[in-house]
Design goal:
The chain has 180 residues and is an alpha+beta fold. It has one domain: Aminopeptidase. It contains 7 helices and 7 strands; from the N terminus they run ββαααββααβααββ. Helix 1 (20-30) packs across helix 3 (44-63) and helix 3 runs antiparallel to helix 4. The longest helix is centred in the first third of the chain and has 20 residues, at 44-63.
Length: 180
């Protein structure tokens, strides 16, 4: 499924495993100056590398298997959705992910786990689509790409399922209409 980005030749499509390196890089750049990412990896010289490794790992192991990730054809932006009742990873799944998380985040893993715990403790319990990440390369921001990749999930949202947009700084917020 592809859709043209309004006012652009760029299209939005489902992300694939082949997209992971470039999409992870774009998302890492998009979140480089984000206050939460600065707290997670305060060392400027490590943040991009660790974030890129983290996004690549989570894309492969958590997000892509649910087939709800969208990206622009150029991979300059993407939205990582999780379908209803798939956002929470149980203890066994988290344990399986631990080696990859440690490889990506190194000594900052405790901060990452604290952020995940904060999100989970404030997360709504009713079934919903969950958008933990939507990001666009800094030089492409302000052109409607984030709105386009985020809004690509419209069909399910229009069927009455709410959506939750992750906002770690203020805890997750229900964003059903905002994500349409």
């Amino acid at each position: 499924m592809q859709a043209a980005l309004p006012g652009s030749a760029e299209t939005v499509r489902k992300a694939t495993a082949e997209d992971v390196p470039r999409l992870a890089h774009a998302l890492a750049r998009a979140f480089y100056d984000d206050p939460v990412f600065r707290w997670l990896v305060p060392n400027d010289s490590e943040r991009l590398r660790r974030s890129e490794r983290g996004f690549a790992f989570y894309l492969r192991k958590v997000y892509l298997p649910h087939d709800e990730c969208y990206a622009t054809a150029s991979l300059g932006g993407g939205a990582l959705w999780l379908p209803p009742e798939k956002w929470h990873l149980g203890p066994l799944a988290q344990l399986r992910l631990a080696p990859g998380m440690l490889a990506a985040m190194g000594p900052r893993l405790p901060q990452v786990l604290r952020a995940i715990s904060t999100i989970e403790s404030n997360h709504p319990h009713k079934p919903h689509y969950y958008l933990p990440f939507v990001g666009v390369e800094p030089d492409l921001q302000g052109k409607g790409i984030g709105t386009a990749v985020r809004g690509h999930r419209r069909v399910s949202l229009s069927q009455g399922r709410p959506a939750v947009l992750a906002d770690v700084a203020r805890a997750p917020r229900v964003a059903g209409r905002d994500c349409r």
